[in-house]
């Protein structure tokens, strides 16, 4: 049968709708009442209905009414009711010249209209069923001929034409066939028939790939787009080699072709197994990244989501995006657009790229921190979440970035919320941005950052993902910037010391314990904090940790094995941290007495033999403070500290040598003159020959103002990769009515794991 004739067949359905009125009563209103035994027709049935209505509703008629007038009123009311029934049950059946009494009150539904609803639904269902069956039959019968027409290979004639050259008969035939198939693909029944024909889908793909005609390209991409709404269609496109052809169409100058191609690829990436690899092999990323320069927000939203699907968990894809200028284009979108869905999808791509060591600097240098920060106050929770995670991941390479004042203030404000993800990201970002950055430390301190961080610690409970970066941030804020003393006092005034000291208890993770030790050391620099720290029993806890860590380190040394890392922390670091904190605490006389009574001097003397220079320095420092008391000085001497201290006089570390000299000078005060003279000569020859100031310092027991180990103010480790964030807000449907695809959400994607996510 001729294809064009097949297309016209649905007209017969319309004719049937207009003429077929006596089969079931749907259109005519026949038999809307129970049929009478006498079979007198419609008038008698209407009369029966009318009489029943009058008996029920009317009580004003009496025998006094003249018979002729009553018959006339009765006939008029019966006729009007019959017409109303027909009009309600079957609209359009009554004549245009009929005049009906209006019984409906505006804004209300009449009983007749309510009774007519099932009838209208039945009518609609029958019409749809007939149309569906006709569509399916039409498509099935037309498929072989349409496939043949799409494969028409009549050569193209040369000459001027619409698309750069006049098309020959073959191109015209192919274009018309593509238009017909496109129309068929818009109806569900015929679309399913098309999906069931691999030959036709392959012909469409081949035509799309080879055509130079813009209309043909538009029709063929539209066909594949319509088929991609179904899993069977996605599979048919994939098996027919549609992905390379669709990637090729991303270079089309026609906006509609681009839109159909990218949405079809998006559906394939979402739901078709193997599609991601096929797109990568077809150089899809190289074609998609330049599309970020378009200015259609909805088109960009789909494109960016495609990039996220391709880059997620694939390092090579991330590097391709970088090589094609992806970070700069993505940051531009975040800076200049306001469409929420676009910002959300773009932030997802940046979140994935933010764990790539090569992409991170590029994003930061393009102004990514500032662009992401401007959306932290958005009304969209999912956008805020993505921006927070991305900022967290980028923050360790953005410690020297300028212009982050507003971001820091917003992050401080975010610490007041109770959301675990928000607190995790905000504390981690603040920890990194305040690392070795005096300006940022001062800004956060002046904007109530200390109080907010303590609040976060109190709310975190046993969540180390929040507590550890919060402690690290406080450690940074309490040292080496103009407002450090203000921060040290603020911790005490906001009742943070008891909560901080409790974190020294096991079984907390060693990274958290190490950070807490460093914070306590900084808090001890403020004399006003000594009493609260002592009340919180910080000294016994530090000594207990010191003994445990030293024993572990000695055990490995005796076994001849290398000191292992426990959760990324070596026990020597704990030994150094505890000893350094006790050194600062020992400046207070009461604390010195408590440290001495805990029988710590033998351990400190033993630490003088350590192979770690920093441990030698802090051990000499704490002995220097303890030696101010005669009883402690005698104990130091009795433990045989003189020999290692004499060796440390020759240390390359000036602080270590000075501390050793001060201890030696103190313990020699009660010795006989000959011993004191020998010590004095040794000190002069080895250390103070060219440094009178150091000699004065040793004699007056002035503590050396050398900064604490720099590694205690290190960048917080970037534990949270954007490839696997805690992001439950994304696990819901995200349909948008004006999107030309069936599903645009994460609903079918697996949930992100909650483990430590270092791998990208």
Automatic annotation (TrEMBL):
The keyword Repeat applies. One of its GO terms (cellular component) is cytoplasm. GO terms for biological process: cell adhesion. It is found in: Cell junction, Adherens junction; Cytoplasm. One of its GO terms (molecular function) is cadherin binding. ARM repeats lie at residues 199-242, 241-283, 283-325, 325-368, 406-448, 448-490, 495-538, 599-641. Belongs to the beta-catenin family. InterPro entries: ARM-like (IPR011989), ARM-type_fold (IPR016024), Armadillo (IPR000225), Beta-catenin (IPR013284). Keywords: Cytoplasm, Repeat. PROSITE patterns: ARM_REPEAT (PS50176). PANTHER family: ARMADILLO SEGMENT POLARITY PROTEIN (PTHR45976). This is Junction plakoglobin isoform X1. It comes from the Eukaryota.
């Amino acid at each position: 049968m001729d294809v064009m004739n097949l297309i016209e067949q649905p007209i017969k359905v319309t004719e049937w709708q207009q003429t077929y009125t006596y089969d079931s009563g749907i259109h005519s209103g026949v038999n809307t009442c129970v049929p009478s035994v006498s079979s007198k027709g419609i008038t008698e049935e209407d009369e029966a209905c009318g009489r029943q209505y009058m008996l029920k509703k009317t009580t004003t008629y009496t025998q006094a009414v003249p018979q002729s007038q009553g018959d006339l009123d009765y006939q008029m009311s019966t006729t009007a009711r019959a017409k109303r029934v027909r009009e309600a049950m079957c609209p359009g059946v009554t004549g245009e010249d009929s005049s009906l009494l209006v019984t409906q009150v505006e804004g209300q539904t009449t009983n007749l209209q309510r009774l007519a609803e099932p009838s209208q639904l039945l009518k609609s269902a029958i019409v749809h069923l007939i149309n569906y069956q006709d569509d399916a039959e039409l498509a099935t019968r037309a498929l072989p001929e349409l496939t043949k027409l799409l494969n028409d290979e009549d050569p193209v004639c040369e000459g001027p034409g619409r698309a750069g050259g006049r098309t020959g008969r073959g191109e015209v035939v192919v274009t018309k066939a593509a238009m017909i198939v496109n129309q068929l693909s818009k109806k569900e029944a015929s679309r399913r028939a098309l999906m069931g024909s691999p030959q036709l889908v392959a012909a469409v793909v081949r035509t799309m790939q080879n055509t130079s005609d813009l209309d043909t390209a538009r029709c063929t991409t539209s066909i594949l787009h319509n088929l991609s709404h179904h899993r069977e269609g996605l599979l048919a496109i994939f098996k027919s080699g549609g992905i390379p052809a669709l990637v090729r169409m991303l270079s089309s100058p026609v906006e509609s072709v681009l839109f159909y191609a990218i949405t079809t690829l998006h559906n394939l990436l979402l739901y078709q197994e193997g599609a991601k690899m096929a797109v990568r092999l077809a150089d899809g990323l190289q074609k998609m990244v330049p599309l970020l320069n378009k200015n259609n927000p909805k088109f960009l939203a789909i494109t960016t989501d495609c990039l996220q699907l391709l880059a997620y968990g694939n390092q090579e894809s991330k590097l391709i995006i970088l090589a094609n200028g992806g970070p700069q284009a993505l940051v531009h979108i975040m800076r200049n657009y306001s469409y929420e869905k676009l910002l959300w999808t773009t932030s997802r791509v940046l979140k994935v790229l933010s764990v790539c060591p090569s992409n991170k600097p590029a994003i930061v240098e393009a102004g990514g921190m500032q662009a992401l920060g401007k959306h932290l106050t958005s009304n969209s929770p999912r956008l805020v979440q993505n921006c927070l995670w991305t900022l967290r991941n980028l923050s360790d390479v953005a410690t020297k970035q300028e212009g982050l004042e507003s971001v820091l203030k917003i992050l401080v404000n975010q610490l007041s919320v109770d959301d675990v993800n928000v607190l995790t990201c905000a504390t981690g970002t603040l920890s990194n941005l305040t690392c070795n950055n005096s300006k940022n430390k001062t800004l956060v301190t002046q904007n109530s950052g200390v109080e907010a961080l303590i609040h976060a610690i109190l709310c975190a409970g046993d969540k180390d993902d929040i507590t550890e970066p919060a402690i690290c941030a406080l450690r940074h804020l309490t040292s080496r910037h103009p407002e450090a003393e203000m921060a040290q006092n603020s911790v005490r005034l906001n009742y943070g010391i008891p909560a901080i000291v409790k974190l020294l208890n096991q079984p907390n993770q060693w990274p958290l314990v190490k950070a807490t030790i460093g914070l306590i050391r900084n808090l001890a620099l403020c004399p006003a904090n000594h009493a609260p720290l002592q009340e919180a029993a910080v000294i016994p806890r530090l000594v207990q940790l010191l003994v445990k860590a030293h024993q572990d380190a000695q055990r490995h040394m005796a076994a001849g094995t290398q000191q292992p890392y426990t959760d990324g922390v070596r026990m020597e670091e704990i030994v150094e941290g505890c000893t350094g904190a006790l050194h600062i605490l020992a400046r207070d006389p009461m604390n010195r007495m408590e440290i001495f009574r805990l029988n710590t001097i033998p351990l400190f003397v033993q630490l003088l033999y350590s192979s770690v220079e920093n441990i030698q320095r802090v051990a000499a420092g704490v002995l220097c403070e303890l030696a101010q008391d005669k009883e402690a000085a005698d104990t130091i001497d009795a433990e045989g500290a003189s020999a290692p201290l004499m060796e440390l006089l020759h240390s390359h570390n000036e602080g270590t040598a000075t501390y050793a000299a001060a201890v030696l000078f103190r313990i020699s005060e009660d010795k006989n003159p000959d011993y004191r003279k020998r010590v004095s000569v040794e000190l002069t020859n080895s250390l103070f020959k060219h440094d009178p100031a150091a000699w004065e310092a040793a004699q007056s027991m002035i503590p050396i103002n050398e900064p604490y180990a720099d590694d205690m103010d290190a960048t917080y480790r970037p534990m949270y990769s954007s490839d696997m964030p805690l992001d439950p807000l994304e696990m819901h449907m995200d349909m948008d009515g004006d999107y030309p695809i069936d599903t645009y959400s994460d609903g079918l994607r697996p949930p992100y794991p909650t483990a430590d996510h270092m791998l990208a």
